[in-house]
Amino acid sequence: MYHKASEWKAQKAVIVGTPMRANDTLWGVLEKQLTGKIERFDGLTSPGRDAIYELLSENNPCLS
Fold first, then answer.
1. pLDDT score for 28
2. Pairwise CA distance, residues 40 & 29, whole Å
3. What is the pLDDT of residue 52?
4. Range 21-42 average pLDDT
5. Interhelix angle for 49-58 vs 26-35, to 10°?
6. How confident is the model at residue 46 (pLDDT cuts 50, 70, 90)?
7. In this structure, are strands 62-63 and 11-12 parallel, antiparallel, or unpaired?
8. Torsion angle, CA of 42/37/16/43, rounded to 10 degrees?
9. Torsion of Cα atoms, 18 then 12 then 43 then 54, to 10°
10. Residues 50 and 30 sit within 8 Å (Cβ to Cβ)
């Protein structure tokens, strides 16, 4: 799917299990990969389903 995403001109977000820094979060890493920066998801508290859905919707098509 990762390689097909390039053919489909979809953005890709990948988290593979490598160690993250203490202040990194899964949702922050996802936002950085899709937008190039962490603005909305910079806290340690989960932003919630609606905020993550909104991020993915704004960056369609994407494979995450």
1. 94
2. 11
3. 94
4. 93
5. 20
6. very high
7. parallel
8. 0
9. -150
10. no
Token couple for 27: 């949702």
* Helix residue ranges, H only, 19-64: 26-35, 49-58
pLDDT of residue 35: 94
Biggest alpha carbon–alpha carbon distance for the chain: 35
Would you state the torsion angle of the CA atoms of residues 55, 57, 60, 62, taken in this order, to the nearest 10 degrees? Answer: 60
Within 10 angstroms of residue 62's Cβ, the number of other Cβ atoms is 17
Mean pLDDT of the chain: 90
Q: Could you tell me which residues are beta bridge partners of residue 62?
A: 11
- Give the amino acid at 17: G
